[in-house]
């Protein structure tokens, strides 16, 4: 029926999207969802070119970066992906994912993401550790990174600056810079406070 896998996927995704009334959030995960799965590269992938051409513009496309688990994300790569997909990608960030090896737990700060990355993204999803309690630092430091990204926008409007200020001075770099070490220290302080608070609860 379809001349290629990409055209089949785009056609089905478009039909479902329209049947649901074109919801504001509708995500499509391509078969080639990171650079290492593309042949020979994201910009030259016939599959991604077709997805970019055929998929309706209101549909978000998920991308994990250079690899399935990407240690770094650069603006250059995201510009390449945006060009071929004809839309900014939604990052599916597997930095903390441990479902592939549950003997490991990742407790470090959110890092390896270039400053100013948010302007190249349509959204960001964090795939956390399987263990719920182990995700305090990952999610807390992601929040600090997000605040710093809001603060570093090149031309923030007044509403944007008010939103940044409303998030509080104690949990984010208001000068627009992000330090993983400082973010980790903030997260650890809050985590210890949370643990101490739980210890005081009856029955603990």
UniProtKB/TrEMBL annotation:
Organism superkingdom: Eukaryota
GO molecular function, one term: beta-N-acetylglucosaminidase activity
InterPro entries: GH, Glycosyl_Hydrolase_84, O-GlcNAcase_cat
Residue span(s) of domain GH84: 1-150
PROSITE patterns listed in its UniProt record: GH84
SUPFAM superfamilies in alphabetical order: (Trans)glycosidases
Record-level GO BP terms: glycoprotein metabolic process
Name of the featured protein: OGA GlcNAcase
Species of origin: Machaerirhynchus nigripectus
Encoding gene per record: Mgea5_1
């Amino acid at each position: 029926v379809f001349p290629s896998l990409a055209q089949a996927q785009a056609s089905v995704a478009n039909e479902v999207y329209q049947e649901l009334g074109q919801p504001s959030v509708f995500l499509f995960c391509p078969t080639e969802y990171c650079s290492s799965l593309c042949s020979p590269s994201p910009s030259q992938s016939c599959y991604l070119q077709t997805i970019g051409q055929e998929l309706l513009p209101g549909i978000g496309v998920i991308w994990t970066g250079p690899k399935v688990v990407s240690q770094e994300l650069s603006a250059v790569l995201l510009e390449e992906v945006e060009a071929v997909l004809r839309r900014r990608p939604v990052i599916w960030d597997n930095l903390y994912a441990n479902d592939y090896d549950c003997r490991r737990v990742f407790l470090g700060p959110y890092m390896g993401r270039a400053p100013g990355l948010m302007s190249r993204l349509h959204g960001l999803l964090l795939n956390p550790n399987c263990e719920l309690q182990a995700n305090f630092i990952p999610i807390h430091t992601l929040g600090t990174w997000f605040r710093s990204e809001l603060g570093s926008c090149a031309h923030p409007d007044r509403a944007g600056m008010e939103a940044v200020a409303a998030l509080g001075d104690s949990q984010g770099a208001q000068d627009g810079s992000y330090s993983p070490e400082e973010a980790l220290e903030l997260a650890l302080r809050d985590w210890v406070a949370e643990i101490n608070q739980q210890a005081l609860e009856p029955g603990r």
